[in-house]
Amino acid sequence: MPLVVRNTLRTDLAVVDGLAKAGVATVHEAQGRTGLLRADIRPIFRPVRVAGNALTCEVAPGDNWSIHIAVEQAQPGDILVVTPTSPCDDGYLGELLAESLRAHGVRGAVLDVGTRDVVTLTEMGFPVWSKAISAKGTVKETPGNVQTPIVCAGVYIRPGDVIVADDDGVVAVPREQAAAVLEAAQAREANEADKRTRLAAGELGLDLYDMRGRLTDKGLRYVDYADAGDTA
């Protein structure tokens, strides 16, 4: 039987917004290169960057009824995360559902299915990351679970886990780890700022990252062109 779980835990929005500022690549690195959704989940317009609490939803093939159910459970700062019970590329979300979601404070949607009305969604500024773009509509016959743990695009996601999404893709952060990941991401950003300054000044990555000794260990040799013979 389908289940709706009410009053689920959520991550503090100050932490969520900090992770949004860091971005997907930095957050992914900061949490040990985990939580990255499949690379085919892409934004329908760019540039875009957002983060929010996961509002999870399971849908049957060709059926978006559960998304309407999920809207009732939405809170400001959520991101809708949709996974199908069987693979499907139909257009599950369009402009009307986006208007409804936005009215309840939802910041965007991540769909392991298709979306449609891309022009209008872009004009609305409602960000969607989806597996496909398809004009094919859906029915409302089979409800699925809402606000339960799901696997979306290969990643286990629970309600209230943090979803960070931008032009590079989508990453999920477990809610219990979100504050620590934010701290690690901010430390990484500070470190990268120093490296950026040094690289912009002309310092070689070979020296900045102390690569020369390791390259020597790997057998890398340098020879002058005059001595290279047939290798040049």
Question: What labels describe this entry?
Answer:
alpha/beta, two-stranded antiparallel sheet, 232 residues
How does this structure look, described?
By secondary structure, the chain is of the alpha/beta class. It is built from nine helices and ten strands. The chain has helices at residues 13-22, 24-30, 65-73, 95-103, 118-124, 178-200, 205-208, 212-217, 225-228, and strands spanning 42-43, 49-59, 78-84, 91-93, 109-115, 128-133, 150-152, 155-157, 162-166, 169-173. The strands form two sheets. Strands 1, 2, 3, 4, 5, 6, 9 and 10 form an eight-stranded mixed sheet that branches. A two-stranded antiparallel sheet has the order 7-8. The protein is elongated and about 75 Å long. The mean pLDDT is 97.
**How many beta-strand elements?**
10
Indicate the percent of residues in helices: 25-40%
**Which quaternary structure do these chains form?**
single chain
Which band does the percent of strand residues land in? 15-25%
- End-to-end span in angstroms? 69 Å
Order of helices and strands: HHEEHEEHEHEEEEEHHHH
Residue stretches low in confidence (pLDDT < 50, at least 5 long) are none
Structural class: alpha/beta
